[in-house]
Amino acid sequence: MPMPDLKRAPLGERLQDPLLVLEVERKTFGDKDCTVLTLGNSTGRLATAPFWGADQLTVAGIARSDVVQVIGEVDQFRGKRQLKVTSIRALPKESVDRRQLLPSVGDVSGYWKTLDGWRAEIRGPRLAAVLALFYDDDDFRRRYEECPASLAGHHAELGGLLKHTCEVASIAKQISRVCRANWDLVLAGALLHDIGKLESYRWDGAFEYTDCGSLMGHVVLGSLMLERRVAPIVPAPCTEHELMLLQHLILSHHGKLEFGAPVQPMTLEAEVLHYADNASAKTASMADVLGDGDGFTPDSMVSRPDWRIDRRRGYRGASDWGREPGT
Amino acid sequence: MPMPDLKRAPLGERLQDPLLVLEVERKTFGDKDCTVLTLGNSTGRLATAPFWGADQLTVAGIARSDVVQVIGEVDQFRGKRQLKVTSIRALPKESVDRRQLLPSVGDVSGYWKTLDGWRAEIRGPRLAAVLALFYDDDDFRRRYEECPASLAGHHAELGGLLKHTCEVASIAKQISRVCRANWDLVLAGALLHDIGKLESYRWDGAFEYTDCGSLMGHVVLGSLMLERRVAPIVPAPCTEHELMLLQHLILSHHGKLEFGAPVQPMTLEAEVLHYADNASAKTASMADVLGDGDGFTPDSMVSRPDWRIDRRRGYRGASDWGREPGT
Amino acid sequence: MPMPDLKRAPLGERLQDPLLVLEVERKTFGDKDCTVLTLGNSTGRLATAPFWGADQLTVAGIARSDVVQVIGEVDQFRGKRQLKVTSIRALPKESVDRRQLLPSVGDVSGYWKTLDGWRAEIRGPRLAAVLALFYDDDDFRRRYEECPASLAGHHAELGGLLKHTCEVASIAKQISRVCRANWDLVLAGALLHDIGKLESYRWDGAFEYTDCGSLMGHVVLGSLMLERRVAPIVPAPCTEHELMLLQHLILSHHGKLEFGAPVQPMTLEAEVLHYADNASAKTASMADVLGDGDGFTPDSMVSRPDWRIDRRRGYRGASDWGREPGT
Amino acid sequence: MPMPDLKRAPLGERLQDPLLVLEVERKTFGDKDCTVLTLGNSTGRLATAPFWGADQLTVAGIARSDVVQVIGEVDQFRGKRQLKVTSIRALPKESVDRRQLLPSVGDVSGYWKTLDGWRAEIRGPRLAAVLALFYDDDDFRRRYEECPASLAGHHAELGGLLKHTCEVASIAKQISRVCRANWDLVLAGALLHDIGKLESYRWDGAFEYTDCGSLMGHVVLGSLMLERRVAPIVPAPCTEHELMLLQHLILSHHGKLEFGAPVQPMTLEAEVLHYADNASAKTASMADVLGDGDGFTPDSMVSRPDWRIDRRRGYRGASDWGREPGT
Amino acid sequence: MPMPDLKRAPLGERLQDPLLVLEVERKTFGDKDCTVLTLGNSTGRLATAPFWGADQLTVAGIARSDVVQVIGEVDQFRGKRQLKVTSIRALPKESVDRRQLLPSVGDVSGYWKTLDGWRAEIRGPRLAAVLALFYDDDDFRRRYEECPASLAGHHAELGGLLKHTCEVASIAKQISRVCRANWDLVLAGALLHDIGKLESYRWDGAFEYTDCGSLMGHVVLGSLMLERRVAPIVPAPCTEHELMLLQHLILSHHGKLEFGAPVQPMTLEAEVLHYADNASAKTASMADVLGDGDGFTPDSMVSRPDWRIDRRRGYRGASDWGREPGT
Amino acid sequence: MPMPDLKRAPLGERLQDPLLVLEVERKTFGDKDCTVLTLGNSTGRLATAPFWGADQLTVAGIARSDVVQVIGEVDQFRGKRQLKVTSIRALPKESVDRRQLLPSVGDVSGYWKTLDGWRAEIRGPRLAAVLALFYDDDDFRRRYEECPASLAGHHAELGGLLKHTCEVASIAKQISRVCRANWDLVLAGALLHDIGKLESYRWDGAFEYTDCGSLMGHVVLGSLMLERRVAPIVPAPCTEHELMLLQHLILSHHGKLEFGAPVQPMTLEAEVLHYADNASAKTASMADVLGDGDGFTPDSMVSRPDWRIDRRRGYRGASDWGREPGT
């Protein structure tokens, strides 16, 4: 049975599906209080109608990141869709693959194909060998293809990190051509720059930071992961000098100290990587803002200031420039 | 007769060529004073040995941006090459094409071919029409293909602006693919974003700002040039709304107010343009720094802080990663 | 019939007047929801008592910027005045001059007299001619004397731009005297610096940005308006060099890049204009904050932090310094 | 005998005058060393030709801030005027009024007349009384009319502080009119805001900071001077609350913490004072830069970046706008 | 009778005690409104259950900073403790020592003993004499030992300033040892740096700024207080130069202009004082955040961003590192 | 034979000692050029008189970081001492312990005793075990007790890092007491925070960055060194959670992103460490500036702006406050 499309389900549509609990909010209005759940699946999210007074007992045991089986109907309140729940119960954690209930980029095989294709063309065997420590490791691949690229910003969806990696690499490839950077090394940077996010984020329920993500940051965690993989290999898969070049790519990819880079880019490849990373992340955020109808008042082309684009406003007006239909 | 390669001419090589006067410096040491000229052609620059005392009369009438016929020999002083001049005289301004004596990207036909090819694929006729006002105008093309992209920073050479435009467009094309921006509009932005440099720079001698370049800035000058070209055409080649979208691309391409953008990017295409522009400019500067031996002390892999990369240092160490020769 | 004074109308006063709808807010409290309108005329603004439940149908068709005929009585709720509405209906847009229902500086003829008087003394005919392109144009005058100087900050009222222009010019006149700037040119700068606001703002209902105001900014729009007026005149009313001086005044009047000036002031006149503009705007904002009782808790001389003065606090304590009454 | 005009004395002119020693510089060129003095009077400054080798004994005992009797002739070296000294000897400190040898605004009686005129119109007797503690004190007047307004920036000349005070007050008067500030209080602020400079600067030789000027700053010193004058008077010339309002004017006149204001303006009068102070100081600096030929290369309208205007450049192009001669 | 511990009083505990009114908030929910009081004593704070509708008359006359006699029971609402009030009435201001109802560091005699002990060892009699002007003055001591060190940040409790002073001195002592600063002078700086807070804060009810605290700031007020104490003493207790050194300690202790220091530290002792002040204040704030359970969601080790530590997050995870119990 | 004291050797003193070559500078004056060596030993540094013309051959083969045997005499030139060299020759690198010729803190045994004493009191065995991996390793100790704490800033001398570590720990101990931080953990932070400097700096000749110091920074290098030491130990000397707490101390000790900390302090111990590190480093720099006579003009108490204290000026005036001699 296909998953209901929460973003577009019309009024009156009846749902009978497992959904993930993204938020549990308890609100008080005067002397009355209620509970509202925000439920989601991979298609989007929808809030329930409030559970008032004693009805709250129905949802008393339900917590963030639970999976619930819901029966209900899409309703509306003051023009905003909500889910009027008839029945709701928590499902055993193992009975459902929660990952199916999170936003997702969908099938990732195309991204792998592209990345693995690029890897296959690397001409320096020691460079290929270091990358293979990660990218030929099934466990790494399994986790990497699930990890989001951020918690709530750009590519905040399952598979987002892999998608972002592909975008960064493809943009970096073009920049490398233009400035004659070493594409093989740039590719290595693209593949390694965000590996620290695997240890910085959790996505087994709602997206969250791990403690070490908070205390060490994904930049340094990536650096430590590289160290850990390479150190025990005898003989070393690459020279110390080469390892240092890779570490520099990871450590400098945020570009400036104030953005969390412990060092600034000093090589052409690090510079390319930084700008490609920025281009993928920032344009994705702009596209998100422009595609999010909730950021605009109905009759306006100009959005509200949005934190995803640093409190700028987006403009959604466009033109076909006289283009013939179908061209 | 080919032009002598000033960057690489070996000691003892004899020169007998026209050169452009890039700098005239008069220095005083104690009660002695001397004059040093910096001479250049399209291959690079070289300073003369000092003209001491009365010998300075030889160069009394020579000014910046003059072209001189020089006879001399490559000499050295404390390890630095210099030109020991035997004879020097100013040439009539018309007798030499000074542009041949300035640094240059060389043949630009490839850049034109690429850009015109992209233009030909634009699907919106009104967009194509606006671009044609500039890019089908021979006079514009003649000036655009000469103009440098900066005075002393990235692409500071004849043809540098055209080369930079091509780079920006090619990078922007890849970013557009990734974030699903309107490539036709992004291309228009790439082609128009720096047109104001035509009125901001002079390159008939050494590269310099025009007065209006100083007082108005190339960003706004570009905006005014677009207005001026479009306004008199009847009927208008595009709608007012469309013109505004193009103006926004020009006006926001520096990304932030503190970098001289009167407005920040509000459309996906403006965001793409900004990051592509940055990527072309900043990686070119990093490549310049790394390729400039003078920035490094002889036995160091780490350069001195360099203003072209915001006082960062460059690192010129590299590796072949075990790559087989010839692969 | 005179307009009711919304700021001071006492409890129990009965209103039967056309008012402008400034805001329509729908609020939900628990399972109850209501609608509150904020109504205004040139004297100020007043909120209605909430329309609860089915009573909301009464105001269902009323939107922001509508003009409504209201019958009601000034009431209070928890010490705050509100308008208890008995009857409300939208009026045809053409039946009322909405401008009479917006905050306004009142009669502007004094401002015109001052400005035109100054213009008459300009000694450079070409400077006078350029200004006349705008200031002898009835259509320009009609719009200029209505336009607010900001949407919600300093001089945010009909006629505010003209008033602000007069203030800037009068302050700039004194600064010019002190630093021996060219007063004629400074005056021109004062008259032209904010003309771009005519295209950046709308004031046919509530005050709002136009799309081109958002995408291009009033600074650059002013520059384009100057270009557009001057370009078609044959012979040119002034030289290119002179036009550039005027453009520089417009483009640099925000003083610093981070405040939206594409270029910084480079002439004495531009410097004078910038400081006069600042002085008029910032002191008006401070006066607004100090005059706005709502910004203070009842027993305090120190206001809450206020965005109009960059999150500073105002102090409303004062003294008569022993001054005799009547002096 | 009139003082020789050091700025304009032509080649060959013979000098036989007392001059103030502004700088004594000892320079070494290779194994040779020399001494150069910079000499000044109220008309400007001129450097001597170097004293070489043993000739340096001639000037061995001469120090900064000495007054010397010089016989010499205006000479030039590489196009720059210098003073070829025939005879030089130090004069007893008391024999010359050194103040006549410093740059000066000249006769200050006009400034006093203006300021005292304004003071006479103050309507609050307690405000007038506090100002009189300073401005009716001959000793204070004697020092105030000499003190420069800065060491090397705006109004850096004897009497500069008084002139600046007059400028600030006259600009502030116009701003007060416009924003309806209390002019009497604003005037008090103008008269008191920089009194701390009397203790922060020394001008008995070259202009210098006092130690307490460095360690406490003129803003706080002004505040302490006000405290010291008012505290011992019994009965108090004004209330504590009134004294606080005056202190706030002094303490906030730099406007922002990062410019050295311990508090930001919170009253309308403090806001007016800050902008008037800024307008006087910044436009004076711009005028200085534009009037200083040394800041421009001979054929350029655009100056070098100048620290007096925060590293901006000045533009010295101007126009008569077709003005009839004599109008 | 001991004071009830508001932070830890269990459900069902009955209170019959005087409490201080810290906040009076009136809230409206739909058409219903209620009043909530926040009550406190030296152990902490607790909110009342809302007074609904007509019950609000019970608390109509109660204002912030009043002392009330309350009878009630600790209750809970949605898991948060509140005080269900049975009876409440305002007490005459004089009948209770309000200071007993404010948060407090408790007995301060230990702090005095430490500070006075250090003072006794000062070897410069003039330094000791200046400090004695304050620290041997009973009135000063009485106020100083009550004053909080901030309104809501670090050491925001009665006696907080004295405690903070002790902390600063003890840290500064160790830094002085390390960098060989003059400990006696550093101690003087610690004792004087924050005396201005006595005039900047009020703590007779809730903690608040005085008007002069807002308009002049505690840094300058401290400087004026020092001036005022020393000036009338004849003969002067110290030299002018020495007074200046003390003033510099007070004026520079915030370290940077943007933190409100009118001058930056220029002596070793001022530098030591600044870092010791910072260390005491910032670590106290971090400890407050980590000790405040409300800043953490129940199952998280990472707090919400907290303004007390500049919007950083705290981490409350810890370890015993295998330590034996009891060691 | 004792080492000559280069800082204080009087004129005429004859030297016959090994010295380290710190700088080799070749200067050109007009058409003459010379070479100047800066020589040093652990007591300080002294420049040679210039070697002119052909005399330069004497020093042709001498390079930075060489050790030379010099015979010469202390001479002066324009009041500045210099070393007039009679004979100079390079010594074999192995013949002299170059470390004796570098600035040094001297005997470090006291620092070790203090630190090891503190370590011995640690109560958590796992914490002690991790520290022992470094501090019980003779090789680590040998390098750590030599390493400078910076290249040219605070504690830039052999043993400077160990001294700084001791200072940080002793200051942190006092701060920990005051804010009740876990002293054992703070001590661990003090001992580990700068270990990365061992790999970031070279001190076998003049002090210099290693390449990995430039490309990765000492903060991250410290983190990697901790990882590398702990990872291979089986069973692990501490838990993963504990390792993370230590990593956080290292990674956050610069306090803010813009100072190179990849993460900001989130624990009380990290906050303490940051402020103690700052206090040791900044007060050492201030002491250096005040003790460096070259930073002051002879008759001034106020230094020139100095980069070591962020371009602030130092003040060297002091007082004995009437202190009896001998107390």
Condensed summary:
6 copies of one chain form a homohexamer. The first copy, chain A, is built from 9 helices and 8 strands.
The DSSP helix count of chain A reads 9
SS strand fraction of chain A = 15-25%
Helix content of chain A: 25-40%
Q: What quaternary form is this?
A: homohexamer
Q: Evaluate the radius of gyration of chain A.
A: 23 Å
Give average pLDDT of chain A, whole number.
Answer: 91
Query: Based on CA inertia axes, which overall geometry of chain A fits?
Result: globular
Low-confidence segments of chain A, given as residue ranges, are none
Give me the secondary-structure category of chain A. Answer: alpha+beta
How many beta-strand segments of chain A? Answer: 8
Q: In sequence order, what are the helices and strands of chain A, one letter per element?
A: EEEEEEHHHHHHEEHHH
Distance between the amino and carboxyl termini of chain A: 37 Å
> Largest interface by residue count?
C-D, 57 and 58 residues
The biggest sheet of chain A amounts to:
6 strands, antiparallel
